[in-house]
Amino acid sequence: MITSRVLTYLVVAVAGLVVLPWDTDVIPGPLPRDTSQTEADAPQNTATYTREVIYFPCSGERCQAWLYMPKQGLAPGRKPPIVIAAHGLGAQKDFGLAAYGERFAAGGLASLIFDYRTFGGSDGEPRHWVSPKRHLQDWQSAVDYAVSQLGEQVDTSKVLLWGTSFGGGHALTTAAALRENITAVVAQVPFTDGKAACAKNVKERNYARITHTFSPLLTPDFFLVPFTDGKAAFAKNVKERGYARIARAVIAALHDMLRSAINMPTAYYPLIGEPGMTNFMGLTQDEQEAYYAKHPAKKQITAPVLFAAATKDQLCPLDGVKAAVAVTPNAQLVTVDTNHFQVYSGEALEYLSEKYVEFFRRAAGLPAEVAAISSDEEQPQDVE
């Protein structure tokens, strides 16, 4: 029997769990937003391209995007094809995507590189909400905006999709939905099969290292993943991390659930953190399976697809990408000898970007050669 004193203690404990700053890694919402324009986000005007910041509507909110327009690579009077591009899980456009916009422009391609709602410069609350369903709505809205509003600047009959990591899965799914309206797709280190990727991670990296990053996913649904020995893996995790650190992660998840139940603002946790931090990923196993576990959509893609995979990728393994290539009509594969994150810089970036431009130009019916800017044209200056 629960006495009034015990009940009082429970109420106080729950209240403390909800409102008290008991964990330094927990940030009670709402997150303050600084929407002032930074140097990295400012308009640009160079010898090979211009870039402006634009907004397009999606479900009553706005997504922010960079619009890159090329100054070379096209016959006089010809409008450039348009690349619709976005990042992966928990990322935004200023996490390295400017490099792709610049290289697309150098190859005579316009690009619309956008942030998902609740990320970066885009609107939406709670901030940093990872949701495949919402992300796919953003992709659809980006394509709709480009086709309906950018016709004076770009060739809207040549719509190209480029997505990386989780965004690679989104690009493939969008291409399957829009079919003949998409000219070509590039899926870079794409998320194609959640169960297979997780199972491979468990086998090769061990359960403890994975749950160190995604510890609050220790729920019954998490164990739907076909582990070889779930009990042994959990025991190993407890031994290496300790009950206290696991409990801290679980309490962090409960903290946010309780706040939501009484209509308090969302609490935030680091997606990935240093050892000892409380890390959290707001994406359920059900959502992964609903959208990308052996997704039949890949078979419905009519546009040519270029898959780019990293041979040392443990997040989106090469075997999973090869399986996607096998079931995708008109697909080809290019690989680099790197891990998942090394594709965004160095030799891998240069090599892959060249392949992407060649692939997109060929699909759009453009000649392989990129015409240089005319020498008698005025060289523009950077916009202040």
Overall mean pLDDT stands at 77
Count of DSSP H/I helices: 11
Rg on CA atoms, Å: 23 Å
Query: In percent, how helical is the residue content?
Result: 25-40%
Query: Order of strands side by side in the largest beta sheet?
Result: 2-3-4-6-5-7-8-10-11
What is the H/E string?
HEEEEEHEHEHEHHHHEHEHEH
Q: What's the end-to-end separation, in Å?
A: 72 Å
What is the molecular shape?
globular
Please state the structural category: alpha/beta
Task: Describe the protein.
The chain has 384 residues and is of the alpha/beta class. Helices cover 37% and strands 15% of the residues. The chain has a nine-stranded mixed sheet, sandwiched between helices. Helix 2 packs across helix 11. The longest helix is centred in the middle third of the chain and has 19 residues. It is globular, with a radius of gyration of 23 Å. The C terminus is likely disordered.
